[in-house]
Amino acid sequence: MQSFFATPFGTLVFTVGAILVIMVPVLIGVAYLTYAERKVLAAMQLRRGPNIVGPFGLFQPFADAIKLMMKETIVPTGSNRVLFLMAPMLTFALALIAWAVIPFGEGLVLADINVGVLYLFAISSLGVYGIIIAGWASNSKYAFLGALRSAAQMVSYEVSIGFVIITVLLCVGSLNLSEVVMAQQGLWFAIPLFPMFVVFFISALAETNRAPFDLPEGESEIVAGFFVEYSSMSFALFFLGEYANMILMSAMTTILFLGGWLPPFDIAPFTWLPGPIWFVLKICLCLFVFLWVRATFPRYRYDQLMRLGWKVFLPFSLLWVVLTAAVLMAFGWLPGQA
Amino acid sequence: MIAALAFYAFAAVLVTSAAMVVTSRNPVHAVLFLILAFFNAAGLFLLAGAEFLALILVIVYVGAVAVLFLFVVMMLDVNFAEMRSGFVRYLPVGGAIGVVLLAELLIVGLAWTVSPEAPRLLAAPIPEGVTNTQALGRVIYTDYIYLFQAAGLVLLVAMIGAIVLTLRDRPGTKRQDVTRQIDRSRRDTLDMISVPSGQGMTVPPKPEVAKPESPKPPEPAHTSHGGGHH
Asked: Measured between CB atoms, which of A115, A158, A304 is closest to B52?
């Protein structure tokens, strides 16, 4: 068996198997994230949420998926056909390929590359293309406005995300995600770098176009923004991509600040749970905060959103990069300096 | 074998999409082909073992620069028919310029000789036990730190120049001053008046300076609203 996986064909089979082992839980997670969102919002608004399809409404996501698949795919007459259909696929594919470098436990990673952090950053910065192409190819005013908003918003918040990542990297001394997690043994980065943790989380909300930064969709102003012309599966792909991105951003938050698969304390009752379970629990916590924020805050006004990104987060995170570097330098804590 | 196949695939798509950038009619398509070209260049970097450069290329050019290109190009209102009119009229001048440029390129290209020292530089090895990210960092931030800082200064000058050229103070724009807004208290802006029912009242003119010592007992909201019923 061991020799079979060493052959090129065996490697291929193994890789495809590993991809499926990651993809299927992620997609099920996406399905149940939509359910969790409706249930959590309902609980916060003293409603019941979906409770008809299956016990406690647990089959609701599948009912929704089947409904979407049965619908007719409409391509508007004036649209750019190829790009119109390419955009949702791009969004969906980008949301999934990022999972290749996420470490679920010690050594449990599909591709343990040296530049994992950069890879994640690159993938998340590409997410804007799906939206901007969709908006342009739809040949519709609302879609285009949504796309432009989204492009400006994502490019703005990426800058502060970049600085936050640099701060973490300064403390780790490596771009490898597993090493980022291992560096947090004993002390999660959320504690010493708490302000950056907050900046990162808020920027993650903006990067995934979630409330209170969901201006690209803004249903009360531009109907549904960039995907107003989409229907059926092409709409479903956007939807899946958006929720997969939420899970991905939560995973990034977990890896960079909440100690990845590490238990909160390295003592008996906490170490009984295996690493991947801790990882999933932390992701769920982050996702809950995503939903909580949506239920709590009203949508930002567009100029305030831009102001927050460029005039508050950018100088603040830049200052923290300098401060972190100075502290590490002054106390000789810089990794790899010894 | 797989690496060679990947190289030819990346190279072929790179050259094709680069050609499409200059030949496609629709500027948005041109930018999208440019992005495809960037991606394949990143793939070539990866094959060469320079994963840091590959990802930086994607982050900087695809993730930021090309988004801005696309942003601008999408908003252009290009009239293709108008662009093609006058093609024959401009052909002689345009053609002449093209010929001159081609001749210059040929002169430079034919006079090109490769120094015998050059191949030695090409094979500059990455030091043992160091990833290429660290090797690059060492070269840029340790060995050539002053040159790097000088390059940064040049960019800073360019940035300041761009801001100076485009920044203008338009009179009449309404701006939100967040500090002032947060600074306002309820006492500065709000008066609770109970209006006698059925009689109405005129709003007294606001005093120039708000008197902070005059105590205004907070009234329940319903009394202030109650007078307004029709």
From this structure: A115
